[in-house]
Design a protein that fits this description.
Elements: E1 9-12, E2 15-22, E3 26-29, E4 35-38, E5 44-47, H1 64-71, H2 78-86, H3 91-103, E6 107-110, E7 113-116, H4 119-148, H5 160-166, H6 174-178, H7 185-195, H8 205-208, E8 229-230, E9 236-240, E10 249-254, E11 257-263, H9 274-282, E12 286-287, E13 292-293, H10 298-304, E14 312-321, E15 327-337, E16 339-343, H11 344-348, H12 356-372, E17 383-388, E18 391-396, H13 401-423, E19 430-432, H14 445-454, E20 459-461, H15 485-498, H16 506-541, E21 546-555, E22 558-563, E23 568-573, E24 583-592, E25 597-602
Helix pairs in contact: 2-3, 5-7, 9-16, 12-13
Length: 603
């Protein structure tokens, strides 16, 4: 190989360079005109020159395949290869020959020892590179379609990675990176909507929380033929919202005895059955504005929902209430009864009639006892959100005597069952809540808002403790076994006791509670996020919305307000110092659904 001289073409880190000067070190000129001093071992000679400028290294045409086949089975070097393919050995043709070697399809090696590839290798490599080029072209076309928001049906599979990011199941996305979009669930959500992969109203929160959205379909056993107390002579009323589809409690009054009847779900769902295990893993029903996902097979509700059949099997809790609101003489029976279903609004029209008038009076006595024990009666605006035919409806829930009465009767039943089980050493889950750090008697919406924020979360335990928010020393949830697993667990324990069978011990009970609570926590979070999502859909679809709000907290010029018609909180900027409980009129300014934010201004 020739000596290194000024004007020689050399290879430096796979790129061409021209030697400018040779001394103790070699000065080379790189592409772009920059110079660098290197050692002779850092470069490889491709052509002795003279090369006046790297710009002379223009593309060349030659006979590649013919000479590759001619050289098969032998070795060569850069000069011979250059002359064979291009017919002349110049800096430009030498560089073109070396590029063929670097390309790696027909040749491999170093400038002084170049080996032709085998025919099998070349054909496989050509196919591989052609496929790669095709894939790169398809990828480029795909990215362009996504960027323009006009995807094809075939693009859905590729966009699955963006959906996984939007659902929080992966941390990055090649697609978002190619579009120079920050990789986040919010941006992934925006892109999926913009391309039409998701609808504009897509609710991602059930999947983000890992909710099982399938409808349980385990085989439901036949209702056992067993002795039941006949209460068909007793008027029983299942009072609930008009659109309720799982009526699991009803009320009766027999002289001075109050009855709370509950769907006898444990009759069809014994411990450790497949239905039971599935319900335990779910924790509770999932109530979304757009649908309901039950924890039990729908056939169970059809058979056991109170008032859905001519005669309903129930687990009935009977007790008396003293003039001081104390519960006594608790009895629990397996019963059968006939139930009349009515709505809260219908019941509210009958509150001066029997038996509702007396039940209302008893509920108020009980409420007074709880209030004296420190119970919190926080009345903040509530709404019901429903999605019908793709349209969001938000209906404020007015305070009704019937609703308060039923709430207190269910609390009585929970206290009665807790006392019944404690007296008989039956392990059941107890709902508990520690008292707030600063007890208060809130008046006005701002005070109620602040007081509610002091309360600690309700916990479910195997030992009884105070439920401060309810003002009850020992309380177990027992009136919603169709939709809440902890209630079903209580029913299973009561049924085992009533039939003289062994109840679950406290350790097995605790294991089931722990598993069910994981599902329940995910469901509560999903319901909260989903309600917020659909509120924002409603606002987005009503861009001219304006309405009243009440100031409930303040910090400088910023205030937290409650919007009664929407049942939501918002933060707004108020130029003058906001006064608590003042009413302000808001106008919608902006909604960002993927980011779950919206902004209002004060009129």
């Amino acid at each position: 190989m020739s000596k290194l001289m000024p004007g020689s073409l050399v290879l430096y880190k796979i790129r061409p360079a021209r030697i400018r000067e040779v001394s103790d070190k070699i000065e080379i000129e790189l592409e772009g005109g920059k110079s660098k001093r290197v050692r002779d071992k850092d470069i490889t000679l491709l052509h002795p020159g003279p090369l006046a400028s790297l710009r002379e290294l223009t593309p060349q045409s030659g006979e590649v395949e013919e000479n590759w086949e001619l050289l098969e089975g032998s070795t060569t070097e850069i000069r011979e290869l250059t002359e064979l393919i291009f017919g002349d050995y110049t800096p430009a043709t030498a560089w073109a020959a070396w590029q063929l070697v670097e390309e790696g399809i027909y040749f491999s090696g170093e400038p002084d020892r170049i080996t032709p590839r085998s025919m099998e290798w070349v054909r496989e490599e050509q196919e591989k590179r052609a496929k790669k080029a095709q894939e790169e072209q398809a990828w480029k076309a795909f990215v362009e379609r996504v960027e323009q928001g006009r995807i094809l049906e075939e693009d859905h599979k590729t966009l699955g990675e963006v959906e996984m990011l939007a659902l929080g199941r992966r941390e990055g996305s090649r697609i978002l990176k190619a579009l120079n979009i920050q990789e986040s669930p919010v941006n992934a959500h925006r892109l999926l909507v913009r391309t039409g992969y998701w609808t504009a109203n897509e609710n991602p929160y059930p999947r983000r929380q890992g909710i099982n959205e399938t409808i349980p379909d385990d085989a439901v056993p036949v209702l056992p033929n067993e002795e039941r107390l006949d209460l068909t002579h007793l008027a029983a009323y299942a009072i609930d919202d008009e659109d309720n589809e799982d009526p699991d409690d009803a009320i009766s009054l027999d002289g001075d005895r109050i009855w709370v009847h509950v769907a006898d779900v444990a009759a069809l769902v014994p411990p450790d059955s497949q239905i039971d295990l599935d319900a335990c893993s779910r924790g509770s029903n999932l109530y979304l504005p757009e649908k309901v996902i039950p924890m039990l097979p729908p056939q169970i509700t059809d058979r056991l929902g109170l008032g859905l059949q001519a005669e309903s099997p129930a687990l009935s809790i009977a007790f008396r209430l003293s003039d001081q609101g104390e519960i006594s003489d608790v009895q629990v029976h397996l019963t059968r009864l006939q139930v009349q279903r009515i709505s809260y609004a219908e019941a509210d029209l009958c509150m001066q009639e029997a038996p509702f008038a007396e039940l209302l009076q008893k509920s108020r006595v009980y409420r007074a006892r709880r209030e004296a024990a420190g119970a919190a009666f926080i009345q903040l605006p509530e709404v019901k959100i429903r999605v019908k035919g793709g349209t969001v409806e938000i209906h404020p829930l007015p305070p009704l005597d019937s609703r308060e009465m039923v709430t207190d009767l269910m609390l009585m039943a929970g206290e009665a069952v807790a006392r019944y089980c404690l007296e008989r050493d039956i392990p059941v889950p107890f709902a508990t809540q520690a008292p707030p750090d600063e007890p208060a008697s809130p008046e006005g919406m701002a005070a109620m808002y602040a007081y509610r924020r002091q309360f600690k979360p309700t916990q479910v335990k195997t030992q009884p403790e105070l439920h401060a928010g309810l003002g009850i020393e020992a309380y177990t949830r027992s009136t919603s076994p169709l939709r809440r697993y902890s209630d079903l667990l209580t029913h299973q324990q009561l049924r085992a006791h009533l039939q003289g069978r062994e109840v679950l011990d406290i350790h097995r009970l605790s294991e089931r509670l722990s598993q069910a609570e994981l599902g329940s926590m995910a469901i509560r979070k999903t319901e909260r996020l989903s309600n917020s999502h659909w509120r924002l859909v409603y606002l987005r679809d009503h861009p001219d919305w304006q309405g009243d709000a009440v100031v409930v907290a303040r910090e400088g010029e910023r205030a937290t307000v409650v919007i009664p018609d929407l049942g939501m909180e918002a933060k707004v900027r108020i130029k003058s110092a906001p006064v608590l409980n003042d009413s302000v009129t808001l106008k919608l300014r902006e909604v960002d659904l993927p980011d779950m934010t919206c902004y209002f201004r004060i009129l």
